[in-house]
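Appendix B. One record, verbatim.
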Amino acid sequence: MNVDDLSRHAYSGMKPPDELSDAEWMLYVILAELYERVRNGQATRASGRSQKDEAVKHYEAVLNRLTDYDRLMDWHSKLWKRIEYAATQYSKAEQHTPEADEFYKAVYGVGAGGRKECDTDA
């Protein structure tokens, strides 16, 4: 749901839609409270508008961080898939290098193919 839709919902006094994300729900609650305060004369339209602009700015910053987080998690997932593939291939190989064995131990806690335990306190 976009900011304008959230704003219209909050202004109308309707309860928040069920399908809102956490960030959308928080913005909805903030906007509903602002609209209520303006209606009750506890805040001016100008101050309400200023606070709404500030809330929307923070909401958009949260969305940007969530988008960055999603991209990072996607990159992380793909990285681990590549590591898993390479590790599987390495564990099946006839010859192993000490450096690659150390990497394997660091990632999995055991030598390639589960050959030897490593010290997990390192």
